[in-house]
Amino acid sequence: MQSATAAVGTLLWPALKRTLAASSSPSLRFPTQARERIAIASYPFREVIAGRGEPGSTPSNAKIDLKDFAAHVSAKFGIQKIEPWSAHFRSVDGKYLEEFRAAIEKAKAAIVNIAVDGEHSPYAADAAERELSVKFSKQWVDVAVAIGSPSIRSSIAPAKDAQPDVERAAESLRRVAEYGAKKNVVINMENDNPASEDPFFLVKIIEKVNSPWLHALADFANTLATGNEEHAYKGIDAMFGHAYNICHVKALEAGENGKEYRVEMAKTFGMLKANHYLGYCSMEFDSPGDPYRGTAELIEQTIRYLA
């Protein structure tokens, strides 16, 4: 499933090479060295990066623009791969995306995935709501093409008029995956919201759609926050069975009750290896404290466990 070969298209990134012509399945070339498999998510740096509608760095505002994040983390951590969060994009117009891509190339960096959060549910009973969900995800596929990301994480927002529904969700995500295939962009789904993104629900959708362009994004900690440890680890293992190019490494997650749930790192990395996962590990520090120190610790642990 995770091919070590890739056709060289008209665009090349230092560590990510992929064909730009539509093909039957994605073909990414993944590095084998542990450190080269690490990416850094922009999400933990919410207090540092200017979000949409916010100005970038000025004398009175020290926040950085997302397009400069790759150079920033390269200088801080010596890591050249990033996973930007959709809410951090100052704009998605053509001019900004061109600037973003140029900044990535200048930093000799690469984007491994875009974490996209949407508000429309792909399993809503209302067909118009489902259509908005599909349209939104397609827009971010286009953003991925513009800035050189091989994939997006398409979130599943809860529906106001329905409980999670595999059939409706699969039909919506099938359309998104088909669009991704045309653009050579992989669609990933993450075990995030416990109500609408339970890992076993996502696995059912992935198996129903049965497309090489629709995969799982296994998050180490999100499902643990439900308090059901057995369910969480079985779910993470199931997600890794359908993962392709991106997972989220965390050491801790806080539940709604404020209780902190710590990840058994050796156990989770063991699942990663047992499922022959060859893709990237995105550092998504989400614990209390300094995200720089926390990210550095996650990098150190990940290198140790991947070795």
Mean pLDDT over all positions: 91
Q: How helix-rich are the residues, as a percent range?
A: 25-40%
From N to C, what is the helix and strand string?
A: EHEHEEHEHEHEHEEEHEH
Which sequence of strands runs across the widest sheet?
A: 3-2-1-11-8-7-6-5-4
Number of helices: 8
Structural class: alpha/beta
**How would you sum up the major sheet?**
9 strands, parallel
Find the count of extended strands (DSSP E, 2+ residues): 11
Q: Approximately what portion of the residues adopt beta-strand conformation?
A: 5-15%
Uncertain stretches:
1-22
Overall radius of gyration: 18 Å
Question: From the structure provided, what is the oligomeric state, counting identical versus distinct chains?
Answer: single chain
End-to-end separation in angstroms reads: 22 Å
Shape: globular
